[in-house]
Amino acid sequence: MATKSVYVVTIALIAVLIVSATSGAYYYYEYQQATQSKNEYESELVAANSDYQKLVSNYDASLSLYNETFSLLTSTIAEVNTSQPVYAQVSSELTTLWDRYLSLKPASASLFETDILIDFGNGTSRWYNGTQVQPDWNLYIATVVLSKGDVQAQWYPAGYFGPGTPGEHFVTGIDGVSNSQTSYWWLWTYNSTASWQLAPVGPDLLPVYNGSVFAWTYCGQTPSYAPACSP
Fold it and tell me: Model-level pTM?
């Protein structure tokens, strides 16, 4: 009887060993699989990080190229008459590139925001609030961009009005509305102290800064040659 008991115990121990060995083999296999997956994920992560760094480098290079192109285009627009064939091409390229840049720019980009009113004198007026511009732009460039290049102007080079006078544009049309014998475009600046004031200089000489407010109004003039309207 004792022999039988020993036999049963032995069989049970053997069964336990077999189960333990099988479980051990299973868990070792799972461990190997997990290790292999971990190595694959690490390899993929390294590759993804490498690709990301390349994208960052290409992105930074693209932004740098955008800035260089903006500088070239604005420099060209700054000293040409709108009647010249090159103006239409350059202004179109500038406005298109600027729209693309705004969709790509990083959140850290340092841009200025300005509010610009265009009043057509016929009951139609448009506020371009929060217009984003490059820090080195003037109001003339900002107006060209927000009007999608639809600005007509005569360029007067430095010294034209006398020694030491700066070069500037005389704007004669915006968004298809041009000066006539009785109505003209007038330029205004705004500050919280003096409210609206007729601009003392042309748009090329008005830097656009963060929070600046400007207006273009279209109307006639009084006998004293003052604008017959205000923003």
Answer: 0.72
